[in-house]
Structure formats: C-alpha cells, structure tokens
UniProtKB/TrEMBL annotation:
Name of the gene encoding the protein in the UniProt record: Slc2a9_1
One CC-aspect GO term: plasma membrane
PROSITE patterns given in the database record: MFS (PS50850)
Transmembrane region(s): 6-24, 113-136, 143-165, 171-190
UniProt source species: Tachuris rubrigastra
GO MF annotation terms: D-glucose transmembrane transporter activity
Domain Major facilitator superfamily (MFS) profile intervals: 1-191
Listed name of the protein: GTR9 protein
Tagged with keyword Transmembrane: yes
Lineage: Eukaryota, Metazoa, Chordata, Craniata, Vertebrata
UniProt KW keywords: Membrane, Transmembrane, Transmembrane helix
Topology of the protein relative to the lipid bilayer: Multi-pass membrane protein
Length: 191
C-alpha cells in the first residue's frame, strides 16, 4: 500500500490548496512589494485579530525605506556574492538530502539507471530553485503556492497512473521518472 502513502502528500496539498484562498496575503509582501498600505493593515488585522499594529507597521515602513534604494539582484549576482555562501551551502545540503528520500525508487527501474535518475533529481531541484527565485517577485508567493500545489496534484495523479500501467507497458517506467522530475520542480517552485 505504498502508493496510498505516496498519494497522501497529494491529499494534504489539496487541502492546503482549498484553504489558501481564504488567507490574506503576507503583510510585508503587500507593503514592500505592492505598496498597498491599507491592504497591509487589513491583512494584519485578519491574521492577528483586532489591535493596534502601529509599531509593526512602522517597522515595515522603515524596512521599505531602507530597501527603497537597494538593487534587486538576479540569480547570478546572488551566486557571486560571498556573504550568501553559508546559506547556499545549507540549501545545497538540503537539496542533496532529498536524494535519500527514495522517491526515485518508486519508478521501478533497473538498478543501473538509478544513479542517472538521482542526478536528474538533483538537476530538477537546481532548476526549480533558480526558476522560483527568478519569478517569485513577479507573481508573488500565493500564486506560486496555488500553481505549485495544482501542478503537484496533477503530476501525482499521472504518476500513480503511470506506476499502475508500468507492468503492462515498459516505457511507462520512463514516464514515471519524468513525472518525478516534474514533481520535484513543481514542489520547488510552489511549496
């Protein structure tokens, strides 16, 4: 019944996707990215209840004033910045640890191909990190979460179907591998 366990993450993603539209945008996102002061205060009240959030709002306004003249860096500029090396190393270690999760073993492939699948998983993770960091400011976190969860749910349905048909059609095993890569990219872009 491992396929039921694999499908459980899709169920959790679906539940989160259903409730996500009822939550407000992040107050810092509304103020710093969108410049929406009223929306920021409204989101603070929705998230934290009634009260006076003047101090928090002023802190965000100070942050906005500080970052006003700051240049937004692209991915290559960030990779060249020595101050982010500790965070990059931590991120790479976390991405590499995903290799031990056994997701690539679900495709029911020959053992000789598994190292290449693991390499493909790593490349998929790297692609998702670069792609997400490039588009998050343009689309916002909520859009990436919704799109990521929808895409993950669709991919999990297709993955389950390809795994069920892999005994009948041998080429479906390779479809499973591609779907695993796509699932990792969708996870990295969204959640």
């Amino acid at each position: 019944t491992w396929n039921v366990l694999l499908s459980f993450s899709g169920l959790v993603a679906l539940i989160q996707l259903l409730f996500l539209p009822f939550f407000p945008e992040s107050p810092p996102y509304l103020l710093l990215q969108k410049g929406d002061k009223a929306g920021c205060l409204k989101a603070m009240k929705q998230l934290w209840g009634e009260g006076n959030y003047h101090t928090e709002f002023e802190d965000l306004m100070k942050e906005k004033a500080i970052t006003k003249g700051t240049k937004i860096m692209n991915v290559l500029e960030v990779l060249r910045e020595p101050s982010v090396y500790p965070q990059l190393i931590t991120m790479l270690l976390l991405l590499l640890s995903l290799q031990l999760c056994g997701l690539s073993a679900t495709a029911n492939l020959r053992e000789s191909i598994i190292p290449y699948v693991s390499l493909g998983v790593s490349i998929s993770e790297l692609i998702s990190v670069i792609f997400c960091s490039s588009i998050i400011d343009r689309f916002g976190r909520r859009m990436l979460l919704c799109g990521g969860y929808l895409l993950m749910a669709l991919i999990l349905v297709l993955l389950e179907t390809s795994l069920l048909l892999s005994d009948r059609f041998l080429w479906m095993r390779y479809c499973s591998v591609v779907l695993i890569f796509l699932f990792i990219i969708a996870y990295g872009i969204g959640p």
